[in-house]
Amino acid sequence: MQQPSQWVGIDVSKATLDVYLRPSGEQFQVANQASGIAELVKRLQTFEIQQVIVESTGGLELEVAQALQNAGMAISIINPRQGRDFAKASGKLAKTVSCGVWRSLIALMQRS
Questions:
Q1: 42 lies in which domain range?
Q2: Where is the Transposase IS110-like N-terminal domain (predicted)?
Q3: For 4-51, what is each residue's pLDDT tens digit?
Q4: Half-sphere exposure of 81 toward its Cβ, with a 13 Å CA cutoff?
Q5: For residue 28, is it within any domain?
Q6: What CATH number is attached to the domain comprising 51?
Q7: How many percent of the chain have pLDDT more than 70?
């Protein structure tokens, strides 16, 4: 049986990339440097990826977004304020977009 296509949310920081996949629920973290990004691309290529959503972080997201796009994945870069506003609207007090918020945001985007 073929696994369903995945939506991916990535929270970007200077040191790490926190990754969440839906509907599998898989979560993992890689270093935000060339070796970590290569590992991320390799892991995501084992799935059928529908869309990757990356939070804009002052340019820190560009290398990973470019690598994923070069690997043939569809990328959306969202304004971090949109993620925080979504978290607040969902009743969560979030300074950053957590995996739980990614789960809800991706579920909503899948329906549109």
A1: 6-111
A2: 8-96
A3: 889 898 989 999 999 999 888 899 999 999 999 999 999 999 999 999
A4: 0
A5: yes
A6: 3.30.420.10
A7: 73
Handedness of CA 91, 92, 98, 100 (dihedral sign): negative
Structural tokens at position 2: 């073929």
Distance (Å, whole) CA 73 – CA 94: 28
DSSP, collapsed to helix, strand or coil, labels residue 98 as: coil
Residue 88 has pLDDT above 90, yes or no: no
Answer yes or no: is pLDDT of 95 > 80.
no
Distances (CA, A) of 17 to 10, 57, 73, 90: 6, 11, 17, 23
Record the tokens describing residue 89, joined without a space: 């609207």
Query: What one-character DSSP code corresponds to residue 53?
Result: E
Per the CB < 8 A criterion, the answer to whether 95 and 84 are in contact is yes
What is the rounded distance in angstroms from the CA atom of residue 53 to the CA atom of residue 10?
A: 6
Instruction: Quote the tokens at residue 55.
Output: 């939070």
